[in-house]
Design goal:
Layout (H helix, E strand, L loop, with lengths): L8 E6 L5 H15 L3 E6 L6 H4 L5 H11 L5 H6 L2 E7 L7 H8 L2 H6 L6 E8 L6 H14 L3 E2 L19 E3 L9 H24 L1
Parallel strand pairs: 1-2, 1-3, 3-4, 4-5, 4-6
Length: 207
């Protein structure tokens, strides 16, 4: 990889409802910063009313807590970044509406080619084991490709991938809030942050 002295900026743009995707995002941030990256971590905002949110236990409380901690992602954040790591809980094996709304706001950047050649990677969480985390990560590859980003999968580039996560990106499952993120899953997330930082640094020198 290229010289670690080359500055590199990463954006982690995620949505989380109960904190599991958030936990992965924070570990990705830690791994990226350990690799010398400057990181902006941002939480996509709700697109439904608080009346709707109130129908799900804890949604409003968790949203208020996280929104106080993390700014909403902007297109300026994406333009600033040399790499973007998108994270979402799965919704029927697909991306949450909240994260997708942020991605859909990037049309201007797409039109101007502002994201071409930057690193892109994904992570996700599900309520149940085998609940669609791999398909959700792969689905996000679609908009990375349309933006012209260089997709950065994990493969099995670190031994921890034989114990947790997926070759497409870090994952966890919550058993509907009853299971915490495991140490191995957090280790995968840290590795993802490091890997994307390293690849983004190389790509930046080429751009």
């Amino acid at each position: 990889m290229s010289d670690m002295q080359t500055p590199v900026n990463l954006l982690i743009a995620f949505y989380s409802r109960d904190g599991h995707t958030e936990a992965l995002a924070k570990e990705i941030q830690a791994g990226a910063e350990a690799a010398g990256a400057s990181v902006r971590i941002r939480r996509a905002r709700e697109i439904v009313s608080r009346d709707i949110m109130a129908k799900s236990d804890g949604w409003i409380e968790n949203a208020d807590r996280m929104n106080a901690l993390y700014e909403a992602p902007t297109t300026e954040d994406a333009e600033w970044a040399d790499g973007v790591i998108f994270g979402t809980p799965t919704r029927f094996g697909n991306v949450s509406s909240e994260l997708k709304a942020y991605v859909d706001s990037m049309g201007g950047l797409w039109f101007q080619g502002k994201m071409v050649g930057k690193a892109g990677s994904t992570f996700s969480s599900t309520g149940a084991l085998h609940g669609g985390n791999e398909s959700t990560n792969i689905t996000m590859y679609n908009f990375l490709a349309h933006l012209g980003m260089i997709i950065v999968p994990l493969g099995y580039a670190d031994p921890v991938l034989f114990e947790a996560g997926t070759p497409y990106g870090a994952t966890t499952y919550s058993l509907n809030g009853n299971r915490p993120v495991s140490d191995k899953e957090l280790e995968v997330a840290r590795f993802q942050g490091k890997r994307v930082a390293e690849v983004a640094r190389v790509l930046k020198t080429l751009r």
